[in-house]
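Folds abound. A case:
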Amino acid sequence: MTEFSYTVTIDGENYSERQLARYEYERTLHVLHELLGLGVELKWNGRALSHLDLNWPTPTAAGRSTTATTIRARFTWEPPRLR
Protein backbone atom coordinates (compact mmCIF):
# COMPACT_ATOMS: atom_id res chain seq x y z
CA MET A 1 0.00 0.00 0.00
CA THR A 2 1.22 3.51 -0.80
CA GLU A 3 2.14 5.74 2.11
CA PHE A 4 0.52 9.14 2.13
CA SER A 5 1.77 12.25 3.87
CA TYR A 6 0.95 15.92 3.68
CA THR A 7 2.17 19.23 5.01
CA VAL A 8 -0.12 22.15 5.75
CA THR A 9 1.54 25.54 5.41
CA ILE A 10 -0.31 28.77 6.08
CA ASP A 11 1.48 32.09 5.64
CA GLY A 12 4.81 30.26 5.56
CA GLU A 13 4.21 28.39 8.84
CA ASN A 14 3.79 24.61 9.01
CA TYR A 15 0.88 23.31 11.09
CA SER A 16 0.85 20.00 12.95
CA GLU A 17 -2.09 17.58 13.05
CA ARG A 18 -2.67 18.60 16.65
CA GLN A 19 -2.88 22.28 15.73
CA LEU A 20 -5.27 21.54 12.87
CA ALA A 21 -7.46 19.41 15.15
CA ARG A 22 -7.64 22.31 17.61
CA TYR A 23 -8.68 24.75 14.88
CA GLU A 24 -11.34 22.29 13.69
CA TYR A 25 -12.69 22.03 17.26
CA GLU A 26 -12.77 25.80 17.71
CA ARG A 27 -14.52 26.25 14.37
CA THR A 28 -17.08 23.58 15.28
CA LEU A 29 -17.87 25.38 18.55
CA HIS A 30 -18.24 28.64 16.62
CA VAL A 31 -20.71 27.01 14.20
CA LEU A 32 -22.74 25.55 17.08
CA HIS A 33 -22.93 28.99 18.77
CA GLU A 34 -24.01 30.57 15.48
CA LEU A 35 -26.71 27.94 14.95
CA LEU A 36 -28.02 28.50 18.47
CA GLY A 37 -27.99 32.25 17.88
CA LEU A 38 -30.06 31.76 14.71
CA GLY A 39 -32.74 29.93 16.70
CA VAL A 40 -31.80 26.31 15.99
CA GLU A 41 -32.70 24.14 18.97
CA LEU A 42 -29.65 22.07 19.88
CA LYS A 43 -30.20 19.10 22.17
CA TRP A 44 -27.90 16.66 23.90
CA ASN A 45 -29.52 13.54 25.36
CA GLY A 46 -32.92 15.19 25.05
CA ARG A 47 -31.93 18.38 26.90
CA ALA A 48 -31.81 21.77 25.14
CA LEU A 49 -28.34 23.32 25.14
CA SER A 50 -27.47 26.91 26.01
CA HIS A 51 -24.51 28.99 24.86
CA LEU A 52 -22.82 28.17 28.17
CA ASP A 53 -23.30 24.43 27.57
CA LEU A 54 -21.60 24.76 24.18
CA ASN A 55 -18.35 25.90 25.78
CA TRP A 56 -17.58 22.49 27.28
CA PRO A 57 -18.07 19.60 24.83
CA THR A 58 -15.18 17.36 23.90
CA PRO A 59 -13.98 17.62 20.29
CA THR A 60 -15.67 14.31 19.46
CA ALA A 61 -19.01 15.34 20.98
CA ALA A 62 -18.89 18.75 19.29
CA GLY A 63 -18.25 17.16 15.90
CA ARG A 64 -21.06 14.67 16.33
CA SER A 65 -23.45 17.44 17.37
CA THR A 66 -22.59 19.57 14.33
CA THR A 67 -23.00 16.61 11.99
CA ALA A 68 -26.34 15.61 13.50
CA THR A 69 -27.60 19.21 13.31
CA THR A 70 -26.54 19.49 9.67
CA ILE A 71 -28.23 16.22 8.73
CA ARG A 72 -31.47 17.20 10.48
CA ALA A 73 -31.43 20.65 8.87
CA ARG A 74 -31.01 19.17 5.40
CA PHE A 75 -34.12 17.06 5.76
CA THR A 76 -36.37 19.55 7.51
CA TRP A 77 -35.60 22.83 5.72
CA GLU A 78 -37.97 23.99 3.03
CA PRO A 79 -37.07 26.73 0.56
CA PRO A 80 -39.28 29.83 0.46
CA ARG A 81 -42.06 29.66 -2.08
CA LEU A 82 -41.72 31.90 -5.11
CA ARG A 83 -44.70 34.01 -6.07
